[in-house]
Design brief:
Blueprint (H helix, E strand, L loop, with lengths): L17 H25 L7 H25 L4 H26 L8 H15 L4 E2 L3 E2 L1 H14 L8 H24 L1
Length: 186
């Protein structure tokens, strides 16, 4: 996955708020998760609707938010700054999810942010119990868990192979992109 991502600030000398950092991270993670969905479909796995694609994006996003949280924690940010960045990231992605769900929904008045935030909160709690390897790469068990969550929201065609695709291809490729993003953003 060779995505064009924003991985450096235009004005390097300006101090950024945690919310600004979270917003840029959210924009980039949305691109990474969207690319995961396109790649999975191009590999022959089935998604049937736009809402199903957004469900897959939600699962990848929740996983990537957890990874970002772990990486920020390892960089020894203060608890307050870490929380502000992750909150800004999650709220930015919730708004993006809300806008995309509204675009494909018949109910243009619905609010989809809370449902997405609930997915993030559930996954953050679940993924917290898993270990990461070496230089904070997600361990096999947490990748397997993320793969199972993606499988649960995918279509039926070749569904049992989705976790393998997530573990062996999607997450490793996304981690390369995320490390490029984080190197310049944090």
């Amino acid at each position: 996955m060779k995505l064009r991502v924003k991985n450096k600030w235009n004005d390097k000398n300006r101090v950024r708020t945690a919310e600004e950092t979270g917003s840029v991270l959210g924009f980039n993670l949305w691109k990474v998760a969207s690319e995961n969905v396109l790649h999975i479909e191009n590999e022959g796995f089935q998604t049937d609707t736009q809402n199903q694609r957004l469900d897959v994006i939600a699962e990848f996003s929740a996983f990537y938010i957890h990874v970002i949280d772990r990486l920020i924690s390892a960089k020894q940010y203060s608890a307050e700054k870490r929380q502000a960045i992750i909150t800004g990231l999650a709220l930015n992605m919730a708004k993006t999810m809300h806008d995309n769900r509204r675009d494909v929904s018949t109910d243009k008045n619905a609010d989809y942010r809370d449902a997405f935030i609930n997915v993030i909160n559930k996954r953050m709690n679940e993924y917290a119990s898993f270990s990461f390897d070496g230089d904070l790469d997600p361990g096999f068990q947490v990748k397997r868990c993320a793969g199972e969550h993606v499988r649960e929201v995918m279509g039926e065609k070749d569904n049992k192979w989705v976790p393998d695709q997530v573990i062996e291809v999607e997450i490793p490729d996304a981690m390369k992109a995320m490390k490029r993003i984080l190197r310049g953003m944090l």
